[in-house]
Design a protein that fits this description.
Helix content is 62%, strand content 0%. By secondary structure, it is an all-alpha fold.
């Protein structure tokens, strides 16, 4: 597992983020986890059941960490760049919703 470099801003971080999500299975796991997070948040808001919010990190991080540790075999950037990683998750999710990013990225050799 490699060291996470430093970045000046999110746009500089984004290519690194994508590289850490090169495996399509990892991307799909992130997509499923983010979908669950959105559905749980909506359910909590409509049902006024705040306790549902406790499930957000379980589903959000659960699927993502399976993707990183078991599939991609790397360490989530969330540990060093939590806000940029969250933003990256939602950017990747949005692009996948629009039909982009449904292929594996070229490997970084």
């Amino acid at each position: 597992m490699s060291t996470v470099p430093t970045f000046r801003d999110f746009e500089e971080f984004w290519p690194y983020y994508l590289g850490e999500h090169a495996n399509l299975t990892n991307r799909v796991l992130h997509f499923v986890g983010t979908s669950c997070v959105i559905l749980i948040a909506v359910a909590a808001a409509f049902s006024l059941q705040a306790r549902l919010l406790f499930a957000l990190p379980v589903f959000g991080y659960g699927f993502a960490w399976v993707g990183h540790f078991l599939v991609e075999k790397n360490r989530p950037a969330t540990f060093k760049h939590p806000l940029w990683s969250l933003r990256g998750d939602f950017r990747m999710y949005g692009r996948m919703l629009r039909g982009q990013l449904w292929t594996a990225a070229p490997s970084r050799a």
